[in-house]
Write a structure and sequence with these properties.
single chain, 287 residues, Porin, twelve-stranded antiparallel beta barrel, two-stranded antiparallel ribbon, 20 strands, 6% helix, 52% strand, globular
């Protein structure tokens, strides 16, 4: 009996508690410093800075975004467009951008650059010479934000969308439009239960393009439905786009299409005010 008690005591002394024998809980994997997202959307009309880019027709849009925890980011975004919006023989917009973005509490800073590229378009039709390739626009930007309010400034470092300047009659002056800039003030507010409202006002200051400066605005509402964002907004401008015989040159009276033939534009007979007010319906999603 004594031997049995001694053996039991020794076994108890050197045994490991049952809970200690189980495998330790796996440590959580560290969060990746890299983030990759995608987005896609269908819009009843594509408005860029308030100006119609699809001649009132729908637009399918989408892109990809990469960001690093340090604040650096890069991305690509794409949309169909109408050649009549200033892209002779072109029907696609491809944007490539990159920069650095950081937030400190409620405050944020965003600096970077963007290139707008229209493959298949002919910039020579805009008066830039036979050796000019596709229409492009290159801009640098800087923006600040406070909570859900942001202010952003864009500055063109080359001819604005491959355009050269014109006078009050619309005749080309051949002067560079470099330095054209755009100021964007935007805000949004979460109403709860998936609802939100948003607003925007912007102003384009055109260099050496008579009657091309204007102000645009937007007010809208959104609803999140199982990850899909449904939006309805009203977009308007005071851009000079009267196609009914105005006495001054109207640069935003757009043709339905433009073709380039050895540098000469051949617009179709159909025209439309590209800055007219319009309601835009959309459905989009980010992944």
């Amino acid at each position: 009996m004594k031997k049995l008690l001694i053996a039991t005591a020794l076994a108890s002394a050197f045994s490991v508690p049952a809970f200690a024998q189980s495998a330790p809980a796996a440590e959580a994997a560290p969060a990746s410093p890299h983030t990759l997202t995608a987005n896609i959307g269908l819009f009843s009309s594509y408005r860029f800075r308030g100006i119609d880019q699809t001649y009132g027709r729908p637009a399918l849009q989408g892109g990809f975004d990469y960001s690093h925890e340090s604040g650096f980011y890069a991305g690509n975004w794409n949309s169909n467009v109408s050649s009549g919006a200033g892209f002779p023989d072109g029907n696609l917009e491809m944007d490539f951008y990159g920069g650095w973005k950081k937030t400190w509490g409620d405050w944020g800073l965003d600096v970077g650059g963007i290139v707008y590229y229209y493959p298949g378009s002919e910039g020579r039709g805009l008066g830039l010479g036979a050796d000019k390739g596709a229409v492009t626009n290159k801009e640098l930007y800087i923006g600040g934000s406070w909570k859900t309010v942001s202010l952003k400034y864009y500055h063109s470092v080359d001819d604005y969308f491959s355009l050269r300047g014109w006078d009050s009659t619309g005749a080309s002056t051949g002067k560079s439009t470099k330095g054209t800039h755009y100021l964007d003030l935007s805000a949004s507010y979460d109403l709860g239960d998936g609802w939100g409202i948003n607003g925007h006002i912007g102003h384009l200051s055109a260099k050496r393009m008579k009657n091309a400066s204007y102000t645009d605005w937007k007010v809208g509402v959104t609803k999140d439905v199982n990850g899909w964002l449904i939006g309805l907004s009203y977009v308007g401008t005071n851009a000079d786009g009267d196609c009914s015989g105005a006495t001054t040159y109207q640069p935003y009276c757009f043709f339905s299409s433009l073709q380039d033939d050895n540098g000469a534009l051949d617009p179709s007979s159909s025209t439309k005010d590209a800055g007219r007010g319009i309601a835009v319906l959309s459905v989009s999603r980010s992944f």
